[in-house]
Design brief:
By secondary structure, the protein is an all-alpha fold. The protein has one domain. It is built from 12 helices and no strands. α3 (51-70) crosses α6 (121-147) and α4 (80-103) runs parallel beside α8 (160-184). The longest helix is centred in the middle third of the chain and has 27 residues, at 121-147.
Length: 275
């Protein structure tokens, strides 16, 4: 008499090379999640993907009027609209990816409890969908630079993939940690938007770090500081890239990513029960 066999799949508590192999085997699922996120975001909207242009452009116009025209905030000899748009481009990639990644598990609870797949794909797909918006908004930045007479050097463009990598590692690392935490404590979902909004003012998006004088080193604790400073230096060529700050930002992003990944893998086996 044959016995009924039950296969129990349990995630490992630590990340291993087997996890990388499993992620590669599910690469089509990553594409599906990314495409699904894009369709959900722009479905039943009047202007569709134009929101990827409207959001940073409208924010840039508001900041230019409030902080550039009225507050007279310096912009390192760069026209304020293009100065702030360059910062917003990387900041919105980080903030949008972080917010979506942190809520990716809770918003897919029906999927998590019924089908097995590498759970880490959900937070990662949040980044890829926002990279599409980043690419669209980059076209606007290129147009603004031409309008204001800035032509980036080739070496300036070559560093952009590195800046994207640091931003992505930071967003996903923090997103993994908060996504796992959000499964257990739903307060994260409500507190995070306020935290992200506060963090933006602790990032040199609307002002240069030099405005803080001798205290500008405080901002270096935020990995996005090195990214945005290097992006402006590379694109506009008016200042040299501070490789020390950029290296610190990269190391900080990697540390946060490792912490987030370890915590995510440690708690992954409890997701289906807690969610």
């Amino acid at each position: 008499m044959a016995r009924n066999m039950v296969l129990v799949i349990k995630p490992k508590r630590a990340f291993s090379w087997a996890d990388l192999k499993e992620l590669w085997q599910h690469q089509e699922l990553l594409y599906f999640f990314t495409w699904r996120d894009l369709k959900i975001r722009y479905k039943q909207t009047i202007v569709g993907v134009a929101w990827a242009i409207f959001q940073p452009l409208s924010t840039m116009l508001i900041f230019s009027v409030l902080f550039g025209t009225f507050a007279k905030i310096p912009s390192d000899n760069i026209p304020y609209p293009v100065f702030v748009f360059a910062g917003l481009l990387f900041w919105q990639l980080f903030s949008a990816s972080l917010l979506q990644a942190s809520n990716s598990l809770v918003s897919n609870q029906n999927l998590l409890t019924k089908v097995y797949f590498p759970r880490i794909l959900l937070p990662i797909s949040s980044l890829f969908s926002n990279l599409v918006d980043f690419a669209i908004a980059s076209v606007i930045l290129a147009g603004l630079m031409v309008w204001y007479g800035f032509i980036p050097h080739l070496w300036g463009l070559l560093i952009l993939p590195l800046l994207l990598a640091i931003t992505s590692i930071f967003a996903i690392g923090l997103g993994l940690f908060l996504a796992a935490l959000n499964v257990k404590y739903r307060d994260v979902k409500y507190a995070l938007p306020f935290f992200v909004q506060l963090l933006m003012f602790l990032t040199p998006v609307i002002y240069p770090p030099s405005i803080l004088g001798s205290y500008s080193w405080i901002l270096a604790a935020n990995p996005m500081t090195g990214v945005i400073k290097a992006a402006r230096a590379a694109l506009f060529g008016l200042q040299p890239i501070n490789w020390g700050v950029l290296l610190f930002s990269a190391l900080a992003a990697i540390v946060i990513f490792v912490i987030g990944l370890v915590y995510f893998k440690k708690t992954e086996r409890f997701f289906a029960d807690l969610i």
